[in-house]
Automatic annotation (TrEMBL):
UDP-N-acetyl-alpha-D-glucosamine binds at residues 97, 321, 343. Belongs to the EPSP synthase family. MurA subfamily. It comes from Paramuribaculum intestinale. The keyword Methyltransferase does not apply. PANTHER family: UDP-N-ACETYLGLUCOSAMINE 1-CARBOXYVINYLTRANSFERASE (PTHR43783:SF1). One of its GO terms (cellular component) is cytoplasm. Keywords: Cell cycle, Cell division, Cell shape, Cell wall biogenesis/degradation, Cytoplasm, Peptidoglycan synthesis, Transferase. This is UDP-N-acetylglucosamine 1-carboxyvinyltransferase. GO terms for molecular function: UDP-N-acetylglucosamine 1-carboxyvinyltransferase activity. Its EC number is 2.5.1.7. The active site is at 121 (proton donor). It catalyses: phosphoenolpyruvate + UDP-N-acetyl-alpha-D-glucosamine = UDP-N-acetyl-3-O-(1-carboxyvinyl)-alpha-D-glucosamine + phosphate.
Length: 438
C-alpha cells in the first residue's frame, strides 16, 4: 500500500480529460461472459477495480487481449466451469465488489453461480437482496454453501424463464445483473422500478448490439426478450461522471480555472446544476465544461431563504458518489448547506478529518451533515489521514490540495481503485502530489 504526500496551496490551471467510467466498465466487462464471441471494448479505465475484474475473468478462462490503453478484446468461448464453482473463485469474488456483476451472466449461461459476500468500501450495508430476488423470479433456486460461505443460485432444468417483476429498490448493480440474467432466459422479462442511470443504459445498448431485443432503455420499465444466443459486438465506455464532478469541485476548492474536456454533457444529468447551486459558475462549452476561477462561491438558498439541502437519489437524482466531494467543496464556499446522504449510512464519517483541518461541519447523524462555508477566508490546515472509501478518499485529496502545509493520505488503494493515475494527472494541472510506497 502507498501514501499520498500532498503539498497544498498550489493554484491549478489547464485542461483535464475524464477517464472511462469505472461503474460502466464493471458492467460491460461482465457482460462479455454472455457470449462465446469476441467483444471489443474501448475507453476502459486502467484502475485497480477494473484490473482485478479482468484478472478474475482470465482465471475463469476468458481470453483477454489488451490492444492499447483502455482497448480490450474479450472472448469467453472456453470458460472453466470447474473454476467458477471453486473455492478460489468465490474467495477472489469476495475481495472485489464489482464481482457481483458476474453472477447474472454466469447463471444465465452456465446454470449456476455463487454470490460471495462482496468486498469493497465500508460505506454501509451493501445488500444483494434485489439481485437474488430478481434471479429467483427468473426461476433460479437459492441455497447457502457453508464450505464456500456463499449463496448458490441454480437455474431450473431447461434454463431461466422470463417474467414480470417489480424491484424492491432501483439497485444499479441489481438491475444490471437481472438484465444480464434475463438476456438468455426463455421468453420476456419485464423489470419495473429498474435503475436507469447512463451506465445501465450503456449495458442495454451493448446487449442490443449483441443481438438482444430490449425496450424502455433509459426508463424504469425495461422489457427484455430473451435470446437463444448473443453475438460479439463493439462498445465504447462513457466518460466517468464522478471524475467530471470531482474535477469541477477541485477547481472551485482551489479557486482555479480549469476545463474538463469531453464530458458527455448530456449524460451528466443533474450533476452540473448541483455544483452550480454551490455557487460554481461552470459553463458548458460544446462537450467540455469550463470552470472559471472565482473570488466567491456563494451557496444558493431555497426560494424561501432557508438553507440549501443537497441529497442523493436514484437516477435521475443526484448520485451518492459525489456527495463527499460536494461536502468538501462547500467548506470553502460562502453560505451553508445540508448534505443529506440518504442511500448509504456510513459515508459521512470522514468529516471528522475535515473538522481536524479546520472545516466547520456539524454531523447531525450518520446521514446528514451541515457545512458552514469558510468563504476561502480560513484555509484548511494540513492533516494526516487514511482514505476510508473511494469517494471520501478523493474528497480528502482535494481538501489536502487546498490546505496550508503538507498532508498525508494513507490507504490510497481506495482511491486507486477508481481513479486512474490520479497523482500524475492532477500534477499536470499544477498540484504537488507525491506517491510514497509504504
Ligand atoms: C459498481 C457500481 O456500479 N457501484 C455503484 C452502484 O452500487 P450498488 O449497485 O451496489 O448500489 P445500489 O443501487 O444497489 O444501492 C446503493 C444504496 O442505495 C440504497 N437505495 C438504492 C436504490 C433505491 O431506490 N433506494 C435506496 O435507498 C440501497 O439500499 C443501498 O444502500 O450504485 C450506487 C448507487 O448509485 C453507487 O454508489 C455505486 O458506486
Ligand atoms: C461505492 C462505489 O463503488 P463500489 O460500488 O464499487 O463500492 C463508488 O464508485 O463510489
Amino acid at each position: 500500500m502507498s501514501t499520498f504526500v500532498i503539498e497544498g496551496g498550489h493554484r491549478l490551471a489547464g485542461e483535464i480529460e475524464p477517464q472511462g467510467a469505472k461503474n460502466e466498465s464493471l458492467q460491460i466487462i461482465s457482460a462479455c461472459l454472455l457470449t462465446p464471441e469476441e467483444v471489443h471494448v474501448t475507453n476502459i479505465p486502467e484502475i485497480l477495480d477494473v484490473r482485478n475484474l479482468i484478472g478474475l475473468l482470465e482465471c475463469m478462462g476468458v481470453k483477454v487481449e489488451r490492444r492499447g490503453k483502455g482497448d480490450y478484446l474479450f472472448k469467453a468461448d472456453d470458460i472453466d466451469t470447474d473454476y467458477i464453482t471453486s473455492e478460489d473463485f468465490v474467495r477472489r469474488c469476495a475481495s472485489l465488489r464489482g464481482s457481483v456483476l458476474v453472477v447474472g451472466p454466469l447463471l444465465a449461461r452456465f446454470g449456476e453461480a455463487f454470490f460471495a459476500k462482496p468486498g469493497g468500501d465500508k460505506i454501509g450495508r451493501r445488500k444483494v437482496d434485489t439481485h437474488i430476488t430478481g434471479m429467483m423470479n427468473l426461476g433460479a433456486s437459492l441455497d447457502y454453501d457453508e464450505a464456500k460461505r456463499a449463496y448458490r443460485l441454480t437455474a431450473p432444468e431447461g434454463g431461466l424463464h422470463g417474467t414480470y417483476m417489480l424491484l424492491d429498490e432501483a439497485s444499479v448493480t441489481g438491475t444490471a445483473n437481472i438484465i444480464m440474467a434475463a438476456a438468455l432466459a426463455h421468453g420476456t422479462t419485464t423489470i419495473y422500478n429498474a435503475a436507469c442511470e447512463p451506465y445501465v443504459q450503456q449495458l442495454c445498448r451493448l446487449l442490443s448490439a449483441m443481438g438482444l431485443e430490449i425496450e424502455g432503455i433509459a426508463s424504469n420499465l425495461l422489457t427484455i426478450h430473451g435470446a437463444e444466443r448473443l453475438h460479439g459486438a463493439e462498445h465504447r465506455i462513457l466518460p466517468d461522471m464522478i471524475e467530471v464532478g470531482s474535477f469541477i469541485g477541485m477547481a472551485a476548492l482551489n479557486s482555479s480555472e480549469i476545463t474538463v474536456k469531453n464530458v458527455s454533457y448530456d449524460n451528466l444529468g443533474i450533476i452540473p446544476d448541483s455544483f452550480r447551486r454551490l455557487g460554481i459558475a461552470l459553463e458548458r462549452r460544446g462537450d467540455d465544461i469550463y470552470v472559471p476561477a472565482q473570488d466567491v462561491y456563494e451557496i444558493e438558498t431555497a426560494l424561501d431563504g432557508s438553507i440549501l439541502n443537497i441529497a442523493d437519489a436514484p437516477w435521475p437524482g443526484l448520485t451518492p458518489d459525489l456527495l463527499s466531494v460536494m461536502l468538501v467543496v462547500a467548506t470553502q464556499c460562502r453560505g451553508s448547506v445540508l448534505i443529506h446522504q440518504k442511500m448509504f449510512e456510513s459515508r459521512l464519517f470522514f468529516v471528522d478529518r475535515l473538522i481536524d483541518m479546520g472545516a466547520q461541519i456539524m454531523l447531525c447523524d450518520p446521514h446528514r451533515a451541515v457545512v458552514i462555508g469558510l468563504d476561502h477566508k480560513n484555509t484548511l490546515k494540513a492533516n494526516r489521514m487514511l482514505s476510508p472509501d473511494i469517494r471520501a478518499g478523493i474528497a480528502l485529496l482535494l481538501a489536502a490540495m487546498s490546505a496550508k502545509g503538507t498532508s498525508e493520505i494513507g490507504n490510497i488503494s481506495q482511491i486507486d481503485r477508481g481513479y486512474e493515475d490520479i497523482d500524475n494527472r492532477l500534477n499536470a494541472l499544477g498540484a504537488h502530489i507525491f506517491r510514497r510506497p509504504d
